[in-house]
Inverse folding.
């Protein structure tokens, strides 16, 4: 090999080296863009899961408030299952916020939860009656439906919960005992 052939070969390889380095740079850029997009998608998924858990907690708190008020289970005050009236509960509201009425009031702070009227869905004679008095008790199953509205996105989620309460006979409207 003489010196001229070595110089010519080196001159031809300079263009190839530049081309290979540009291709490697493009591949690394694509890897970086993919990694960033994957991370952003992960953040969106985690954010959606967090919003869902917050909505579930708000619905659970509203349902607990409805369950704790025994007037909601009074057979004379229970609204017919076909009625659409609901209670609006503001969960995690600021102290001193007035209770809201339905419609059209909305929560000034906190998460808005609309709770449908409780509905008796099943009744069964209890096998454990009173030992001291002759009375018939029944195990009534009530359904409570809470609809949560996310204040930021406007997304809505509906949660159903059942509660069994032992009551006297004829305490489950719409179902014969």
């Amino acid at each position: 090999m003489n010196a001229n052939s070595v110089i010519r070969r080196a001159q031809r390889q300079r263009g190839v080296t530049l081309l290979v380095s540009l291709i490697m740079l493009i591949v690394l850029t694509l890897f970086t863009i993919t990694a960033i997009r994957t991370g952003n998608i992960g953040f969106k998924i985690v954010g959606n899961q967090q919003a869902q858990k917050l909505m579930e907690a708000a619905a659970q708190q509203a349902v607990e408030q409805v369950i704790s008020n025994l007037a909601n289970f009074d057979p004379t005050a229970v609204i017919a299952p076909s009625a659409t009236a609901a209670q609006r509960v503001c969960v995690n509201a600021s102290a001193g916020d007035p209770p809201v009425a339905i419609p059209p009031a909305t929560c000034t702070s906190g998460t808005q939860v609309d709770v449908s009227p409780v509905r008796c869905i099943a009744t069964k004679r209890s096998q454990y009656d009173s030992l001291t008095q002759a009375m018939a008790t029944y195990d009534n199953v009530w359904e409570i439906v809470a609809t949560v509205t996310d204040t930021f996105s406007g997304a809505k989620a509906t949660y159903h919960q059942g509660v069994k309460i032992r009551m006297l006979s004829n305490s489950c409207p719409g179902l014969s005992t």
Notes: The chain is about 35% helix and 25% strand.
